[in-house]
Amino acid sequence: MSYWGKEIKQQPPSVSYEAVVGTDEGVRDWLAAVRLYGFCYVDDSPATPEATEKLLERITFIRLTHYGGFYDFTADLASKDTAYTTIALGAHTDTTYFSDPVGAQMFHLLSHTDGSGGESLLVDGFRAAKILRDEDPEAYQVLSEIRVPSHASGNEGISIQPMAPFPVLNHHPVTKELVQIRWNNDDRATMDRWKSEDELEAWYSAARKWSQILRRPENEYWEQLRPGRPLLFDNWRVLHGRGAFTGNRRMSGGYLNRDDFVSRALMTSRKRSDVLNAL
Prior knowledge:
Blueprint: E1 14-16, H1 17-22, H2 24-37, E2 39-43, H3 49-57, E3 71-73, E4 89-92, E5 104-113, E6 120-124, H4 125-135, H5 137-145, E7 169-171, E8 178-181, H6 197-214, E9 221-223, E10 231-234, E11 238-242, E12 248-256, H7 258-269, H8 272-277
């Protein structure tokens, strides 16, 4: 794993479309970059929904959610979600309201006409968590222990909630390493079940510190997405956002399950016998 901040803009990881669609070695290199950095671009892709969908399916099947499967949308509020607007979005992870949040996500800007803005924001959540742990171990512990309720209830007939609230920082139960960030202010439900006033104050103090770290300029990587350059990123590690925009943007992409994504990464980089012997 390689941590990064805004300096990654000088040389962000990328692979070629032809390599990914034409060879398993291309898929291997693509997923290896995502596993190392948390994201990777695909250069010289056709700027079509068909090509975007083909890329995703080179990894695994596209995950179905209440938004559908493969998406191809504009800011028309067809779904009641801030993604379907033109407003700025702060750094967040998607689907905190699922018991099993999506593992990876792709964005491919197909077109942007009659306007400007909409730069994409990426933040290395694992790097931010390390900074928090180094600067304020108590805040890190609070965000690792206190559970946060979340939900998706914006669309008629839907109120998705996880089987239980989860902390912002989630760790492997055996190795204790950080494995998942869950951070989305827009999906957070009412937090009114505190054990004490001290716990309430501790969580909001830790959340404020965490939010400040995410917004430090040195931790923010801003990039204007463009047609022909899809972006794939690890939703358990990398937080994303965007600047406000004007005009008409058409965005395509989709979600992938983490376990299937990791399986494809393993099986393209190692012999099957080695993977099974390591179990």
